[in-house]
Protein: Ribonuclease Y
Amino acid sequence: MGESLYIIIAGLVGLGVGALLVGLFMKGNNKKIEEDAKEKAKIILREAEMNAESVKKDRILEAKEKYLRLKSEFEEEVNKKKNIIITNENKLKQKEQSLNKELEQIKRKEAELDSKKENLNAQLHAVQVKKDELDRVTNQRISDLEKIANLTRDEAKDQLIEMLKDEANTKASSHIKDILDQAKLSATKQAKKIVLDTIQRTATEHAIENCVSVFNIESDDIKGKIIGREGRNIRALEAATGVEIVVDDTPEAIIISGFDPVRREIARLSLHRLVQDGRIHPARIEEVVAKTEKNIEEEIVEIGERTCIELGIHGLHPELIRMVGRMRFRSSYGQNLLQHSKEVARLCATMAAEMGLNAKMAKRAGLLHDIGKVYPEEAELPHAILGMELAKKYKEHPEVCNAIGAHHDEIEMTSMISPIVQASDAISGSRPGARREIMDSYIKRLKDLEDLALSFDGVNKCFAMQAGRELRVLVDADNVNDQTAGQLSFDISQKIEKEMQYPGQIKITVIREMRSVSYAK
Structure:
């Protein structure tokens, strides 16, 4: 036990000594680490101080460079402004010197004017003195004359005025008569010269419009296709176009008869397309006629534009251009309206140029003078007044409007262009062979015949056929039944008998067609 205790004590003592030795070793290590840390801290501080010093110097150098640069720019700007100020001061000094010189000159002129003014005042005073002396002498002489002649001044003046007035009237009357005679002679010669020059310089055709068109075909076999089974094709074509198709023994030709040139042209073009296509039946005929009508409207606009380009007329309203194109399919007393209007336009331009007036405006008025004849709606106005209203509506020049309205003396002429248009219209229309009065009255009678039938309710279309001896009336099947169709035919015939004058008799045919259309989709 004592030995064990001794061993334990010895062990404890060994542990204490080891612990002490370990503590002493650790203490020595800590001191060394601490010293190393302090040394590193000092080194870091020295490096930081050196870096800070270097950065500080760099910042100071950059600041000095920036300061010097800004200072240089500032001084340069100041020098520029200083130079500008010096330049402006020099200019101001020069202007001041110039103004001083001008002021001195003005003062010298004022002094000269004052001197001249004093001289003029002196001269005026001398003249006034002489005038007073002259008035005194004149009054003395007048009083002496009044005593000798036993007349006062006013009485003598009145007698002298009366004598001079009679003498002046006599000479003026003689002079005015001579001037008027000379003016009439010169005006007549000049007017004849202008009209003759204008007619000679204008070449135009004199062909008369008719009511028949000829459609040429390659062989007579096509006639059977155009007629169709039991004539159904030709009836469908006549009903769709409103013209009469005459298929006779004339070789390789079909006659298209109708008073309206537009309808004849539609029928001719439709026939041409049908023959080329080869498919000729009622449904195809209606389709082709509808397309042709649309194409004719486009052609009308194209004709109007081409006419304006040909005559050098610009700025016309599109509606007026369309009406100019419609003139191609209208006639005036058998004379083609477009050719007549173009001829009048050229005559007007030539006359206006000869007289020193505005040739372009005169040409414009000449082209549009008959524009009222192609107005699509019926109007109870003369065509000249209607054309003038249309020109005003589409913003034409007032002189052009007046020339259109006054070319048949419906209104008063207010410009020199108006009599030129009137004279040109007379020149174009009164040439031998240019017009045919019967044609216009004939076309008007057929147009009135169609308008009379269209005035009845339920009538869709109406076509005058056989030179006005037959009237075909197409009615709306929904509004007119089979019973009322006969009554409508009778009512139209009675109204024609009461209101119209016509040769022979007129056949009224009312056509009512019922169609039911469905689509399979």
In short: The radius of gyration is 57 Å. The beta strands are 212-216, 244-246, 253-257, 331-332, 335-336, 459-465, 470-475, 507-512.
